[in-house]
Design a protein that fits this description.
This protein is of the alpha+beta class and about 625 residues long. The strands form six sheets. Strands 2, 3, 4, 5, 10, 17 and 18 form a seven-stranded mixed sheet that branches. The chain has a five-stranded antiparallel sheet with strand order 12-11-21-20-19, sandwiched between helices. A hairpin with a 6-residue loop joins strand 20 and strand 21. Helix 11 packs antiparallel against helix 23. The N and C termini lie far apart (about 130 Å).
Length: about 625
């Protein structure tokens, strides 16, 4: 009996002892190990950290003219937790206080704005009105400032002073959603994020860095003193290579047309102007675009939302004939003086591959083939080598790969080759593929910017990296061109340049008549790329003007100026323009005149004088 009693006492004592040990461990954990945690929690109960929102950097053209700037204003905010039942009366009173000053809002709308931002996890002030203009706040500030909890926070709203001009280059900002905030946490405070163009490409830089202001507060959240202050890093500005004067002239010249145009420095890749048409008003996206405006843009058959100079993929047509010619000089056992017969058509497998000129061109060497765009010359020589060799040279010249331009989501395009056809389409390569690819048709696709860059390589001897930003703050950006050609290939570039000079500046060139109004000394190449299949048995083709708009050919022209001392490249692609010479040629002439008038290049007479002096 005593033995059982002793066991019970031991068990009770053991339970008692273990309980005390557990309790002591818990006390030690709370008082010692968790001291730091509760200390920080206590500090947070007495200190409040307010973010200092940086002003987004501005974007300007090469001469300092604003392209994207900020309108100064204010955001009206209330503290968190007012949507609790115990605090709801305060929320309603504060909103009723400000409603007379902002009759465009309803009480329900402002309460809804507040509740969207209020949650148990949010400790920041919640905006109920995102932007109020500076002049409006000044008018009502004495009354609004009487509230002890309402905060009027300086805020900047994006503004695009040139409306539509260079819209696809500049891009726009819009309200940040949760997904945006996860990728770019600062957007939680700035409420905006770059969505397209340079605004998106350089968003992290333009946003700046959040500052902070730590203040001691009472239990009612009233400020007692400022404990610390850290400035925001802001006003990170971008200077672009654009000249808005050139850009606006380009917009006027391209009015009524759809497509793309680029003016670029042939040596360093600085883009002076670039347009994708039609354009759109960037300011419509600030704060969220209306359904009406969005539907109009989305549903337009002319695709204004697509940046056509980097995302438009088009058959390049005859503008790639210089690249073909360079490949022939290396692989087709010819030189620039080799003449071959160029009849009206060649026949292969019962199919006729016709020249654009009904009666053919007699015989042609490389210069004539470029000057008069002799299709049959390229048909014949494309069969004298493995087309993979040709494709490799075209890739050396910048086609079939990204240019590296500082804009998001650039497309790659396709340079046809036996390898690509097998990999992409699981099909064999035939002689007919070589023939149609030799004049930039088939499944050949390029962007206008790729064609501009390829033209710059021909003009300068090196492949530049096209870019729009020349300066980030005080940091000047320079991107050296790439040396992609062999010595043999470089030695043949003067032949290609001379052929292009003859296209624009000699009688008989395919663009000679169309560019007569140019004040500059031009070298160029035209291209007309079919978008529908035309039967090779039809000797009399319909005129482009007789076709439905979307069945008309894409009209290309690409060139450099001055012809004897290349400085700038101009590339134009008019969607369904019909004729490269007839439609795009006059646009080239007008754009070249803009460069002459603004002093970027000399006029023809001065170019000729320089040529004579050099001789």
């Amino acid at each position: 009996m005593d033995y059982r009693m002793n066991n019970r006492i031991i068990i009770v004592f053991a339970v008692f002892l273990v309980s005390w040990i557990v309790l002591l461990i818990k006390i030690f954990n709370v008082s010692v190990l968790s001291y730091k945690f509760y200390e920080e929690k206590a500090i947070n109960n007495t200190l409040r950290e307010d973010p200092i929102i940086p002003t987004r950097g501005q974007i300007s053209d090469r001469n300092g003219i604003p392209l994207a700037t900020n309108t100064v204003g204010f955001m009206i905010s209330l503290p968190p937790r007012l949507s609790l039942r115990s605090q709801s009366k305060i929320l309603e009173e504060e909103i009723e206080r400000i409603l007379p000053f902002f009759p465009q809002y309803t009480k329900e709308k402002l309460i809804s704005n507040y509740k969207k931002g209020d949650s148990p996890y949010n400790h920041d002030y919640i905006p109920i009105i995102n932007f109020v203009e500076h002049d409006v706040i000044l008018k009502y500030y004495p009354e609004l400032s009487q509230s002890e909890i309402l905060r009027i926070i300086p805020f900047a709203k994006r503004y695009y002073p040139n409306l539509t001009s260079a819209s696809h280059v500049i891009g726009y900002v819009s309200n940040a959603n949760n997904q945006d905030i996860q990728k770019q946490p600062i957007a939680k405070y700035t409420n905006i994020i770059g969505k397209e163009g340079l605004e998106k490409q350089y968003d992290t830089y333009l946003q700046g860095e959040i500052g902070s202001r730590i203040v001691k507060v009472t239990a009612l959240n009233k400020e007692v003193e400022v404990v610390s202050y850290k400035e925001a890093i802001e006003n990170r500005d971008l200077t672009t290579t654009l000249d808005i004067r050139v850009q606006k002239e380009m917009d006027k010249i391209f009015e009524g047309q759809n497509g793309a145009a680029i003016i670029m420095n042939a040596h360093n890749g600085e883009i002076l102007a670039a347009g994708s048409y039609p354009e759109y008003n960037l300011n419509h996206f600030i704060g969220g675009i209306s359904h009406e405006n969005w539907n109009a843009l989305r549903d337009s058959p002319y695709k204004p939302l697509i940046n056509k100079f980097i995302n438009g993929l088009y058959p390049p047509g005859s503008v790639i004939k210089m690249g073909m010619g360079l490949a022939f000089l290396e692989y087709a056992q010819i030189d620039e003086t080799t003449e071959i017969k160029t009849p009206p058509f060649i026949e292969l497998g019962g199919r006729k591959f016709r020249d654009w000129k009904k009666d053919g061109h007699g015989s042609s060497d490389l210069l004539k083939a470029i000057k008069r765009s002799v299709d049959v010359y390229f048909y014949i020589l494309s069969q004298r080598t493995d087309f993979q060799n040709i494709a490799n040279i075209l890739r050396q010249m910048g086609l079939g790969q990204k240019t590296g331009v500082d804009l998001p989501n650039e497309f790659i395009g396709i340079v046809p080759s036996p390898k690509i056809k097998k990999e992409r389409y699981k099909q064999d390569w035939y002689t007919g593929d070589s023939i149609v690819s030799s004049i930039g048709q088939g499944f050949f696709l390029a962007t206008p910017l790729q064609i501009a860059n390829y033209t710059a390589l021909i003009a300068s001897g090196k492949l530049p990296t096209p870019h729009f930003v020349s300066q980030m703050g005080e940091n000047i950006i320079t991107i050296p061109p790439k040396d992609t050609l062999t010595n043999f290939q470089k030695s043949k570039l003067p032949i290609l340049r001379e052929g292009m000079r003859q296209v624009c500046s000699e009688v008989g060139g395919t663009a000679y008549l169309a560019t007569q109004e140019s004040k500059a000394y031009l070298a160029c190449k035209t291209g007309t790329a079919q978008v529908i299949k035309i039967s090779q048995t039809d000797q009399e083709r319909l005129k482009e003007s007789e076709l439905d708009y979307f069945h008309r050919s894409q009209a290309w022209i690409t060139g450099f100026l001055p012809a004897n001392n290349p400085q700038y490249v101009i590339t134009i692609m008019v969607e369904h323009g019909g004729s490269g010479s007839g439609t795009a040629g006059p646009i080239l002439a007008k754009l070249s005149n803009v460069l002459v008038d603004l002093g970027y290049v000399p006029n023809k007479q001065n170019s000729f004088m320089k040529d004579t002096t050099n001789d």
